[in-house]
Amino acid sequence: MQVSIRRLLFRWLALLLLLAVVAATLLGHALALRPVTAAYDWVLVDTALSLTRLINSRPDVNPEALSNSADMLLRTDQFDRIYYSVHDSRGRLIAGDAQLRPPRMESLEAGELLYDARVDGEQVRVAAMRVSLRGVDAIVQVAETGVKRSELTRQIVTGMIAIEVMLVVSVVILVMFGVGKGLEPLDHLRAEIGARSHRDLRPIDPERAPVEVRPLVVALNELLARLDRTLQSQQQFVANAAHQLRTPLAGLRMQVEYGLSQTDPGEHLRVLRELGLSTERAVRLANQLLTLARAEAGFSQADSMRPLDLRGVAEDVVESWMPAAIRKKIDLGLSLEAAPVLGDVFLLRELLSNLIDNAIAYTPSGGRVTVATGCRGDVAVLRVEDDGVGIPEALRPRVFDRFYRADGAGGEGCGLGLAIVREIAHLHGGSVDIAAPPAGRGTVVTLQLPRRG
């Protein structure tokens, strides 16, 4: 699913605006209801006062005459139903609507009283006050339904919503324009990257990107730098590999031409033996190149990683190298303990095979090579120790470079063995280091991998 910054911005903006409109509408309704209620309450109180003045202005308190006068004063509203009542201090109805029950006299000590009630099943707003009618305490009440109040509140809220909608539309238009302008630098950046060739790995200028995107550009530049180093390394690897392969192939060709020019059967046999050895070295080199390429690429890492024990790997590999050790009169021994890991058995065999190959190659006849496995805390350890010529401490970091061979190094290798060892170790999340044994003569190569279980 593709993620669009524009869509995300609009989606969040729409949600925030919707919440803002709902909150503003609710708040607007509450704010509008308060002044509307206060204004109509004042009118209701004034109406009650007018009714009181009307009663006091009459020479007598005749209920029928009073009702007629009050009806003329109050029953003229076109929208709301008006109720009124006049009760004496004992709660007896003097005039008006009997269904409008009076409050307790004590509640009117502070003056007028405004409250909500229900009359004839309708919600009404009531203004009640304690008055003196010809020297007698009485309660005058005027009530009305809320039609005008609701309508005025609705008109105010509708006007506010209309303003909010116009503001929202304006904000959306401005944001759409602003987002488009704000994302233009990203469009320019995309166009710049898209216009590059696959060989152009120059870093991108972070100053040309928005501040918010600069960390991404910096990370992209770091990736480009790593990719550039990898490509340069691969190019150098290919060049070195071609050179390394060209040499034995050229030697094979010369040996074939020399053999064809000879007539002596004995010489033919000697040339064939030389051809066999040269072919074996060429095959060994090709296999090492393929193994190194596989290790560097993490070939089938997810599929080929299996639970295994380095002890079993060591037993199998040492057994395969035993004939070579016997031919050179080297004591090839084992010191094995359980070392469970998660790994590629093919690559780990190749790793150990390269270590044993180097140890036998650089250990003189009559020497000793020991392969050991075990665990140290959360680390599984594979160690190959020999009492051969050793590696000077200053050269130890360089021996892991591809095709590196120290001056005066013997053997017929091409400098790939330890490079393969390092790549396979890194592929398994481990490390490899070289040191001198406690006796001081020879080499100890130690592989450390994460212990399984």
Write up what this structure looks like.
The structure is a single chain. The protein folds into three domains: 5-153, PAS domain (Beta-Lactamase, 2-Layer Sandwich); 212-293, Signal transduction histidine kinase, dimerisation/phosphotransfer (DHp) domain (Helix Hairpins), CATH 1.10.287.130; 302-450, Histidine kinase-like ATPase, C-terminal domain (Heat Shock Protein 90). The protein is built from ten helices and twelve strands. The protein has helices spanning 5-57, 63-74, 147-182, 184-194, 214-261, 265-297, 301-304, 310-327, 345-361, 417-427; strands spanning 82-88, 93-96, 113-119, 122-133, 136-145, 306-309, 331-335, 340-343, 368-376, 379-386, 431-435, 443-450. The chain has a five-stranded antiparallel β-sheet. Strands 7-9-10-12-11 form a five-stranded mixed β-sheet, covered by helices on one side. The chain has a two-stranded antiparallel sheet with strand order 6-8. β3 (113-119) and β4 form a beta hairpin. α6 (265-297) packs parallel to α10 (417-427) and α9 (345-361) packs antiparallel against α10. The longest helix is centred in the N-terminal third of the chain and has 53 residues, at 5-57. The chain is rod-shaped and about 155 Å long.
